[in-house]
Amino acid sequence: PARPPLPLPRRLHDAADHRPKPGGPLTLYRDLVSQGKLRHDVYQENVASELDSLLGRLERYEMEMEDYHTKLSMWDSTRENERRRLLLEEAEDKQHDGVWIDEKRGFLDKLISRKRRANIEPGVGRWVSYLNRERKLDNLVGQKPVAPVAPKGLYLYGNVGSGKTMLMDMFYGATEGVIKHRRRFHFHEAMLEIHDHMHDVWKRRDDGKSMESSAFSWISGLPFDAKIKEWLIGEEKYKQDKHQKHILLAVADKFLVDRQANKCGASILCFDEIQTIDVFAIVALSGILSRLLSTGTVLVATSNKAPEDLNQDGMQREIFLELLSKLDETCNKILVGTETDYRRLIPTDGSTQIHYYWPTNPDTRSMFEAMWHDITNQTGGNITAVTIPVMFGRSIEIPQSCSGVARSELQTI
Description:
Elements: H1 25-34, H2 42-97, H3 107-118, H4 124-141, E1 153-158, H5 164-174, E2 182-186, H6 187-208, H7 217-220, H8 226-243, H9 247-255, E3 268-272, H10 279-294, E4 298-303, H11 317-330, E5 331-336, H12 362-379, E6 384-389, E7 395-402, E8 405-407
Parallel strand pairs: 1-4, 1-5, 2-3, 3-4
Antiparallel strand pairs: 6-7, 7-8
Helix pairs in contact: 1-2, 2-4, 2-5, 2-8, 6-9, 9-10, 10-11
């Protein structure tokens, strides 16, 4: 039996009231259609219109986020300065009271002090002092600035080849020069970056176990006894552990930061081909996306599946349902319902075709060598060996490379 026709696109706003933005995705889409480079598709045009509308809302939101990040940076700096001041006051009190200078204290004082410390469960004293310090900071510095209300993002889903990635990339290109804080990831690229950030967090934790860690360098020059400095380092370690207890939240806070420019997170995240291939993907996506969406990031995502169909194996169901709830709260779902696979309509020539030579014999080797020499002669560059840095501090040696064309044995890569 014939499949029922897919529903026509649902418009989130009145198209008659929406004027295409110059240089926006809708204008670009219509230009490509009029030039004959794209075939008109009602679903694609609807998505382009929605992306165009979102771009207009993001311009104002970007300015609001700039102001928010400025206030947040000032708040963080002031709170950290006040926190250290409170720590130093506590350290001075301990030094003046002779808490750890046992040789200057009488027998009775030492006995009372030992009993008092014995009655405190390990870790509880530090936890209480941390909470008391946080309450004081709330009163001194005030509450954390509130992020502006973010416009709803878009979750585009539909068949392969329906144009989802093309439309998202039109939108991302249109944000250049308009949205300062923006990132675009493919799913696999994002997973690699998440692993890289987790590696960094774990490495910092290991480095932080050292008393000589740079995180505690500000303590070394203070005019306190060694025992007082040890107490200060213990308080700093406790604060670090509290902040890094949930590693995915720590990763999310760094995920969209421009590492080289040390800038704040993105206002817009374009995420191509969201999928849940395993338990880690579900847990990581749920934790990180939920955190980002809760702190003002606007998501434009593509997937071959609707959100509710992403986890058909039922892995980590409770965590997955939390992600669904957050996506429903922060994104509008749009079906790109065309049944045409436009990838099959793209013309190809010899230079863009994939060549696979098999079986391995003198004839196929000769054909491969001829293709290699033909390509490298066209580029006009020199053939050299290059080293390409990859994740986690590793690198790959490419024995022959020429103007972006690489040649390597399979076992090398």
